[in-house]
Amino acid sequence: MSDKPWGGRFDAPTDSFVEAFNASTHVDARMYAEDIAGSKAHASMLGAQGILRQHDVAAIHQGLDTVLQEIESGTFTFKIELEDVHMNIERRLTELIGDAGKRLHTARSRNDQVATDTRLYLRARGQDILTRLHTLQSVLVTLAKAHHATIMPGFTHLQTAQPVTLGHHLLAYVEMFSRDYGRFQDALKRMNQCPLGSAALAGSTFTIDREATAHALGFDMPCQNSLDAVSDRDFIIELLAASSLCAIHLSRFSEELILWMSAQFHFIDLPDAFCTGSSIMPQKKNPDMPELVRGKAGRIVGGLMGMLMTMKSLPLAYNKDMQEDKEAVFDALDNLEGSLRVFGDMLPGMKVDQATMLKAAGSGFSTATDLADALVRAGIPFRDAHEIVGKSVALCIQKPCELHEMNAEDCLRIDARLTLAMVQALSVEDCVAARDHVGGTAPAQVLKQCARWEALLNAKEQ
Ligand code: ARG
Fold this sequence. Notes:
Layout: H1 16-22, H2 25-28, H3 32-48, H4 54-73, H5 85-97, H6 99-103, H7 110-146, E1 151-156, E2 159-165, H8 166-190, E3 193-194, H9 210-216, E4 221-222, H10 226-231, H11 234-261, E5 268-269, H12 288-311, H13 325-346, E6 351-352, H14 354-362, H15 368-377, H16 382-398, H17 408-414, H18 420-424, H19 428-434, H20 443-458
Parallel strand pairs: 3-4
Antiparallel strand pairs: 1-2, 5-6
Helix pairs in contact: 3-4, 3-7, 3-9, 4-5, 7-8, 7-13, 7-20, 8-11, 11-12, 11-13, 12-13, 15-16
């Protein structure tokens, strides 16, 4: 018997470099448990259908348990000449139980096997991401509640825009992560169909029971087209796309934390356990974790782009190109999970300099819109009010002073309709408290949103 499960047709051995280049065990060995679960379900079904004898099925189950135990105890050696996890496990099974092991591959191909294993493996990893997202959201809601009335500047174009509450800002990320959660859920639901029984591409000549294997492996149903089942990698692309968006959200959050921790902002301090120092500059405390998480977005999006290109124009059905699928998605999910974990662990230890935030919130004429709104309430059309406040800001820059520091003479010089009472009433506290409607930044609204999120997260119902 040749060393290769497919060796019968070949005269010459595989080139030694090709052997290593072709092998995928370094990537797919981590799907060993799913490969074994898939093989057990397949063998049971073959037994139930009278395609395999029951004592062969029993031997296969026992042998696979031994293989599983060998892999988990570290005594199993994956051989690159056996290419991948599937052939390594099957070969060892055959060493252990003889001919029964060779019967396992009846009515099956590595094409439906790898598609099944990958879906099973990613289904579990996708659940891990959902758990991490949920934890991070809970951490953010707790922080938002604590900071429902902490005032900070809100920015557009990274220029001071209007005061907001820190709680409101944090809840913006809870919303983003909720959509990420939904995207993962959708992808996981869509991919939960079983390719097994599609065999190489056309199905099998045996009277297999595809419902049985699908059910045994926790799939909703068997894939309904054998060609599609072995060709489809859009489930991988969807997971990469969901990962990419989530990583982009994390990168924006990272960027803000990095800015906020700079000496110039001085809004926050991140815990030592999540920062590093410099080997030359003794004063440095660098926000390495948000920086690294920001960087991870690049490779995760890179994985998505790579996989889209790998699949572009591929004819049906299986092509070896598709072996490239696992590395990208495993890497993306590993790094996304790590990023979510770091954020969930780091944020509870974040210190907030509320006094600095408040001071910054009041500078940069952040109350200008509210002054315009006061003029509108006095019956002035908004565009005129905008013009009057614009002139007031120009005057303040020239003096210099803040809007609420203008005197009666300043007001009169700009427009008779601008009163001292209007400018003196401007406070950042009033600015945030006034935005008291669904989705607004008022502390009362932040508390309402926190309560809504707590209920949703407790019920695991986002
Ligand atoms: N290692 C392969 C992969 O990951 C398994 C499928 C191989 N099928 C084949 N016909 N060569 O794609």
